[in-house]
Design brief:
This protein is of the alpha+beta class and 651 residues long. 13% of the residues lie in helices and 29% in strands. Strands 19, 20, 21, 22, 25, 26 and 34 form a 7-stranded antiparallel β-sheet that branches. A hairpin with a 7-residue loop joins strand 10 (203-209) and strand 11. The chain is globular and about 75 Å long. The chain starts with 9 loop residues before the first strand and ends with a strand.
């Protein structure tokens, strides 16, 4: 049986003040670019499709003008093709790469809009041969030794089989080709299992198999925590749970504590055990969720398929969940596990709300205050505090904090001038660790210095509102077709799927640096034009002029894709006048456009002119009479200081 492995390269932004994120972490908010040549590993993609092998050998996609497939033609998912599509222009080819430890590929991720880092999914590592047949090197360091070989708690670790069907973001009315992957999970009691979110992303079917059993049982995904890369599963079959004992969680380990990773990685079907020690504990960039949370770095081997498997201490307690790996020519044996503090936060969030609501943020861009003259100028008397450079308009902090404020304490804990706080007895950790311990809706007390005077303020913490989302809620992207003009919101998966030069530098810059001004704001783009006589002359707009943001319809500023659909439906004018960025204009006769819609859909085999979510009633989130500034939507200012300056971090 031929096994096709695909490698996906992901670019993310990092900050110099914290680690990275996902099955491997991506450092979203760090500002220092790490430039080293590294290898990324793709997850175990199990499929019988010949096209997958072709995708692994031929990673480069055709340009927009030559690639236009018929809307009904199947296309390869990002997990089945090797894409060396770097996220933004100007990114060096020599970058640090992280990999997810599962059996498929991961997505493009951005860090907190500062600096580029590449991430990748866990799987087979491809040797650097030039064309011809691909050669894969399976780096396995798996053993079953010592007391762990017959330990009863190993029976709580199960193998996960997932069938994925990802959306097609370029042709949003259809799905990509189905693919399969394998990973690991473990029992936590009450009929539930824990695994990584990336192991069951875009799932259409999830099955699990116990150690020593030959039967696979259907599992249901109860919750996904994209930011923390955790997923909660349930299995209804009582037979599956017979004689099962759940794992117990242990405390956060110390440096050099022994750790044992258990799972079902590449190289065989039986359970595998690898041993090592804790190398580092710090805020880490999670590659899958584009977030910065506490992570544990270990030197135990973590290989494709280990994703979702537990890491044990010497007492047989689970101290973390394997999820990502660092691959580079200059380093080896750097793996990451999600600590039990993050796992407990995910589970408690689910118990509180019946769903996953996410990790909160403060919503401010900070600068370190390591320079004594800078502290003196701001009236900060001691060697502490971080400067507020920018406040997200959608955060509650925008109601209490101002640019130029200096945050010197968080819930009574002093914040150092380098943006760290005390951690355990003799360590320090990034300030955002304190924020990650909170839940959505919690209130934090901030001690600030404003104009030389100390005061205390309170701010409500909520999940960040992204102008360009890293993941699409509900899985399927929204779209609207008006006389062959295809509109869709700009998203990170769409940027990943399209060529970098096709998106254009202006849109990439907005995606990377602009802030949402209100909840629900989107950058709506003209994705493509389905050629027809009604739109003659516009069919090359999305090819020659790259993808364009649509700004107005008949003079009304567009807030999001749902608002655009509402404006089209309620229009009574003779013409539909679309205004795009750079003063491009498209005018359609309204009645002719309406009459041509059915014919265009039939010609291109498209089931509907809009996604199901746009058929619902439109509710104006800003209020009917809300005034709109000329640059209010998707035009947030971008300063040069936000491009790779080490002293900046988002929290």
């Amino acid at each position: 049986m031929a096994t096709a492995a695909a490698t996906c390269w992901f670019t993310a932004l990092t900050s110099a003040t914290g680690p990275s994120r996902y099955s491997l972490t991506s450092q979203r908010f760090f500002a220092t670019t790490l430039r080293r040549h590294s290898h990324l590993i793709a997850p175990n993609s199990e499929t019988n499709q010949n096209a997958e092998t072709h995708a692994a050998i031929n990673p480069n996609r055709k340009s927009r003008t030559s690639k236009k497939p018929l809307p009904s033609s199947p296309r390869k998912s990002s997990a089945q093709k090797e894409a060396i599509g770097q996220r933004f222009p100007g990114t060096s080819k020599d970058e640090v790469h992280f990999s997810r430890a599962d059996a498929r590929s991961s997505k493009t991720v951005r860090s907190q809009r500062n600096q580029p880092v590449a991430f990748k999914s866990f799987g087979l590592q491809k040797k650097g041969n030039k064309g011809g047949n691909n050669v894969f090197d399976i780096k396995e360091q798996q053993v079953e030794t010592g007391n762990f070989q017959d330990a009863a708690f190993l029976n709580a670790v199960v193998k996960v089989y997932c069938t994925h069907t990802a959306p097609d973001y370029s042709l949003p009315w259809q799905k990509q080709r189905q693919y399969t992957s394998t990973g690991s999970a473990f029992m936590i009691g009450d009929g539930k299992l824990l695994t990584n979110a990336h192991c069951v992303e875009h799932d259409t079917q999830v099955k699990v198999k116990r150690r020593g059993d030959d039967t696979k049982y259907v599992a249901k995904v109860l919750a996904r925590g994209i930011e923390c890369d955790m997923a909660l599963l349930s299995v209804e079959s009582t037979e599956f749970w017979e004689g099962a004992e759940p794992l117990h969680f242990g405390r956060l380990p110390r440096l050099q504590d022994p750790v044992t990773v258990v799972g079902y990685p590449l190289g065989g079907d039986t359970i595998s055990v690898t041993k090592g020690v804790v190398s580092r504990i710090e805020v880490t960039s999670y590659a899958h969720g584009s977030s910065d949370l506490l992570g544990i770095q270990i030197d135990a081997a973590i290989n494709p398929g280990n994703s979702g498997g537990p890491a044990f201490n010497d007492q047989g307690e689970c101290v973390g969940v394997a999820f990502q790996v660092f691959r580079s020519d200059e380093v080896e044996n750097i793996g990451y596990v999600i600590p039990t503090t993050v796992v407990s936060h995910f589970l408690e969030d689910y118990e509180r709300n019946g769903k996953y609501t996410g990790f909160p943020c403060l919503g401010v861009l900070l600068q370190k205050l390591e320079n004594p003259a800078l502290r003196a100028c701001l009236g900060v008397p001691s060697n502490e505090g971080v400067l507020v450079r920018r406040v997200e308009p959608t955060s509650d902090a925008s109601n209490v904090l101002k640019e130029g404020d200096v945050i010197v304490s968080f819930d009574g804990i002093r914040v150092g001038c380098e943006g760290t706080v005390p951690f355990r007895s003799t360590e320090r950790i990034a300030f955002r660790y304190l924020i990650s311990q909170k839940f959505a809706g919690d209130v934090a007390e901030l001690g600030i210095v404003r104009a030389g005077s100390f005061t205390k303020l309170k701010a409500v913490l909520n999940p960040r509102v992204h102008l360009v989302p890293y993941h699409i809620e509900g899985g399927q992207p929204s779209y609207l077709i008006v006389a062959g003009l295809v509109f869709t919101p700009l998203s990170d998966p769409l940027i990943e799927e399209e060529c970098e030069d096709q998106i254009g530098l202006k849109l990439l810059t907005k995606a990377r640096y602009s802030l949402a001004k209100f909840k629900g704001e989107q950058i709506v783009i003209l994705s493509q034009v389905l050629a027809n006589e009604v739109n003659i002359g516009y069919e090359d707009m999305s090819n020659e002029q790259k993808q364009l943001q649509v700004l107005k319809l008949n003079g009304t500023r567009i807030k999001n894709i749902h608002h655009l659909a509402y404006l089209v439906d309620s229009c009574k004018d003779k013409y539909l006048v679309f205004e795009f960025e750079d003063n491009y204009l498209a005018v359609l006769e309204r009645e002719a456009a309406c009459s041509a819609s059915a014919r265009i859909l039939k010609d291109y085999g498209i089931p509907a002119e809009r996604s199901p979510d746009l058929s619902e009633s439109y509710v104006d989130s800003l209020g009917v009479n809300h005034p709109v500034e000329q640059h209010e939507f998707g035009d947030g200012p971008v300063s040069n200081s936000e491009f790779g300056f080490e002293g900046l971090l988002w929290v």
